[in-house]
């Protein structure tokens, strides 16, 4: 076995060198298993493998061979992107970085034995486990809807076939028809996501079906980038979008997928498309591992270690960490902190204080992009916001176009940071 | 077609030894072009003693093959363009300046492009004045630009720790690509240290306007900026 000598010596100068490194000496290469090959998991696998240069054995467990990013899936729905442009494979992680990619579901975690069982029957041992399984939906969150209704009333909140289905349904709407969205309560994946979605749907309808209507039933009294979206909806889609917040009964919703009706505060409306985005919780495997409290997995911001089991690091949407929004950018940022901590613990490489950042871009209409972002640091209590910014209402078209172009650059950047 | 047919014909005829005879004014207005060059000078120098900065210096650019300097590290895309025979004649330059990414896929020149033909022609007329015989290059370096931020010599003298830079860089690579590809967010690899440090401080003191970069640079110390400059400056 090869220990990273240089890193090990360097640990003396490190801010918080771990003492557990010698433990793994002589026990063969330390093993890291990563569950979930999305924004958090793919980044973590790549950074651990790349940084340790073969000194750590990294296995990535992910059922799909193709990962469709949720980010930019709204742009696909609007026709700004092809589906193939948001599809990514794990080939480079395996060939260039030596990650063992296993296409299977993790179905059980034995925290005492430190093993993961896979649906196919295999069992993987780990020294450290990384969980980045994204989200699942809370059962019964929207009365009348459960996952078996997702072909009639898609969520499109996991990208791929759901995005294709929603796009096809929107394009098949009769002239003057109605598109309804049931928005989720906080906290959920991608706070501006539902409202960017509505903007993109409106963009399609304005061109193909200008008399159509959009209703949003929202269990919240306000939402992310609200002033920017409402200004944009007024500018581009005047009169098309009706947002019903919780102050107006948007939190009292029931759907009927067979009848294609939505009842908002008792008033039943027949709709042509109904995009139900239910309340969310950490991906089920977190619950199965027994590392959740309530709907989410609590973690320490210094290392992204679970507060319940220090051999497990949890990333991205599944976590309860503090101030960061649940976004791909956040998951990617958290993955690098976890990768550093894991390398430090297993090979004694240098560890620096955790730093995080996030920026979320949203597209309102063609070349009308807006953004919100912040930087964060780890305190003992949580990941705490340091500084932030948000696009302003009334910005000129040139700036909005530059913002959109930046988001295209970011997409290329983050996907190459995830998949190599 | 970027220029009038007559001018193209003139240039075609000039691609031989005789081209040095032709005056720049045949392409456009070099005086107006000098103003257009403001859009290039954050990255390129021309004029006597011009050095490579973020981009290579542009003295003698006309009729030189793409990626011709041995002492400047170009992107893979630019080397491929040279292999494919790209030469910086008026057409080649015109196409590249109009749409850098489309003309040289994979270029690390972070420039959106100059859409107006007249602007390009005037700029080329200006650049042409630095491409005649070396002795004709004007004495006073016209691009000796004002330094963006005056930094104390101690700050510029800090030698960055590339290992620390590598860790800090992970915050940048969500947006800036490590291979220098430009898809809407500028390339920051292989910059001269000083240019990198100055650019970061310009964001930090909010002299450069960009909310994301002001925020990112805002919490970096002088040592951290130097570490990032050292890391990105040598990234292959
Ligand atoms: C419409 C929409 C737009 C968005 N736009 C943006 C945006 O512009 N910017 C941004 O930053 N974020 C955006 N997001 C949010 C972003 O997609 C998520 O925050 C991000 O993907 C979270 O990363 P993650 O690693 O936690 O989960 P995911 O990326 O969802 O990855 C989880 C992976 O785990 C796998 N998995 C789950 N359970 C198991 C198991 N038991 N065994 C093995 N594998 C398993 C899944 O197959 C999946 O591939 C958007 C989201 C949506 C829905």
UniProtKB/TrEMBL annotation, chain A:
Domain annotation FAD/NAD(P)-binding: ranges: 31-145
Domain of life: Bacteria
Gene: fccB
EC number from the UniProt entry: 1.8.2.3
Group of enzyme by EC: oxidoreductase
GO molecular function: flavin adenine dinucleotide binding; sulfide dehydrogenase activity
Name of the protein in question: Sulfide dehydrogenase [flavocytochrome c] flavoprotein chain
InterPro entries: FAD/NAD-bd_sf, FAD/NAD-binding_dom, FAD/NAD-linked_Rdtase_dimer_sf, FCSD_central, FlavoCytC_S_DH_flav-bd, FlavoCytC_S_DH_flav-bd_sf, SQRD, TAT_signal
Signal peptide as annotated in the record: 1-26
Sulfide dehydrogenase [flavocytochrome c] flavoprotein chain central domain: residues covered: 164-278
Organism: Shimia thalassica
The Flavocytochrome c sulphide dehydrogenase flavin-binding domain, residue ranges: 354-419
Database matches in Pfam families: FCSD-flav_bind (PF09242), FCSD_central (PF21706), Pyr_redox_2 (PF07992)
Keywords: FAD, Flavoprotein, Oxidoreductase, Signal
UniProtKB/TrEMBL annotation, chain B:
Iron among keywords: yes
GO MF entries: electron transfer activity; heme binding; metal ion binding
A Pfam family the protein falls into: Cytochrome_CBB3
Domain Cytochrome c: 28-131, 160-236
Record's keyword terms, sorted: Electron transport, Heme, Iron, Metal-binding, Signal, Transport
Residues annotated as signal peptide: 1-20
Protein name in the entry: Cytochrome c2
């Amino acid at each position: 076995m090869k220990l990273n000598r240089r890193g090990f010596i360097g640990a003396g100068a490190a801010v918080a060198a771990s003492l557990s490194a010698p433990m793994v000496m002589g026990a063969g290469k330390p093993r890291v298993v990563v569950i979930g090959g999305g924004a958090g998991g793919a980044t973590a696998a790549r950074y651990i493998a790349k940084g340790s240069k073969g000194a750590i054995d990294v296995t990535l467990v992910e059922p799909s061979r193709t990962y469709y990013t949720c980010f930019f899936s709204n742009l696909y729905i609007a026709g700004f992107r092809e589906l193939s442009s948001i599809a990514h494979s794990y080939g480079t992680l395996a060939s260039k970085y030596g990650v063992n990619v296993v296409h299977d579901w993790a179905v059980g975690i034995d925290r005492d034995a430190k093993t993961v069982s896979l649906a196919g029957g295999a069992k993987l041992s780990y020294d450290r486990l990384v969980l980045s399984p994204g989200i699942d939906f809370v059962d019964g969150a929207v009365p009348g809807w459960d996952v078996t209704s997702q072909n009639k009333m898609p969520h499109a909140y996991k990208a791929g076939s759901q995005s294709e289905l929603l796009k096809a349904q929107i394009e098949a709407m009769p002239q003057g028809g109605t598109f309804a969205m049931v928005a989720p309560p906080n906290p959920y994946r991608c706070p501006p996501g539902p409202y960017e979605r509505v903007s993109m749907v409106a963009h399609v309808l304005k061109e193909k079906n200008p008399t159509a209507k959009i209703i949003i039933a929202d269990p919240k009294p306000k939402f992310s980038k609200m002033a920017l979206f409402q200004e944009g909806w007024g500018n581009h889609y005047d009169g098309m979008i009706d947002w019903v917040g919780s102050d107006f009964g948007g939190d009292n919703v029931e759907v009927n997928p067979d009848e294609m009706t939505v009842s908002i505060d008792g008033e039943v409306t027949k709709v042509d498309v109904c995009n139900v985005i239910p309340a969310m919780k950490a991906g089920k495997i977190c619950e199965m591992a027994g590392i959740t409290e309530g709907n989410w997995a609590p973690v320490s911001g210094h290392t992204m270690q679970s507060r319940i089991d220090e051999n497990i690091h949890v990333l991205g949407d599944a976590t309860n960490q503090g101030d960061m929004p649940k976004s791909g950018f956040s998951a990617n940022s958290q993955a690098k902190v976890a990768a550093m901590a894991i390398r430090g613990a297993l090979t004694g490489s240098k560890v620096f204080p955790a730093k995080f950042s996030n920026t979320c871009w949203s597209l309102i209409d063609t070349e009308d992009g807006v953004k919100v972002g912040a930087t964060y640091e780890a305190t003992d209590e949580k990941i705490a916001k340091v500084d932030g910014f948000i696009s302003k209402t009334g910005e000129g078209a040139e700036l909005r176009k530059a913002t959109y172009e930046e988001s295209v650059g970011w997409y290329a950047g983050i996907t190459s940071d995830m998949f190599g | 077609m970027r220029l009038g047919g007559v001018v193209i014909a003139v240039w075609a005829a000039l691609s031989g030894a005789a081209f040095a005879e032709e005056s720049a004014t045949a392409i456009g207005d070099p005086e107006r072009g000098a103003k257009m060059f403001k859009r290039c000078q954050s990255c390129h120098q021309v004029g006597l003693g011009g050095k490579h900065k973020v981009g290579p210096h542009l003295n003698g650019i006309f009729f030189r093959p793409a990626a011709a300097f041995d002492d400047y590290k170009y992107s893979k895309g630019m080397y491929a363009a040279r292999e494919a025979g790209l030469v910086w004649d008026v057409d080649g330059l015109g196409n590249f300046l109009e749409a850098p990414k489309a003309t040289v896929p994979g270029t690390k020149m972070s420039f959106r492009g100059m859409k107006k033909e007249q602007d390009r022609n005037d700029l080329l007329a200006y650049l042409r004045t630095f491409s005649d015989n070396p002795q004709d290059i004007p004495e006073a370096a016209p691009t000796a630009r004002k330094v963006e931020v005056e930094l104390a010599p101690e700050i510029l003298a800090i030698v960055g720790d590339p290992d620390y830079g590598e860790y800090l860089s992970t915050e940048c690579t969500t947006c800036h690509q490590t291979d220098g590809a430009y898809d809407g967010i500028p390339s920051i690899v292989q910059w001269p240290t000083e240019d990198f440090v100055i650019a970061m401080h310009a964001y930090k003191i909010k002299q450069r306007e960009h909310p994301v970069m002001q925020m990112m640079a805002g919490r970096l110390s002088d040592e951290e900026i130097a570490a990032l400059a050292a890391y990105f400056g040598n990234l292959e």
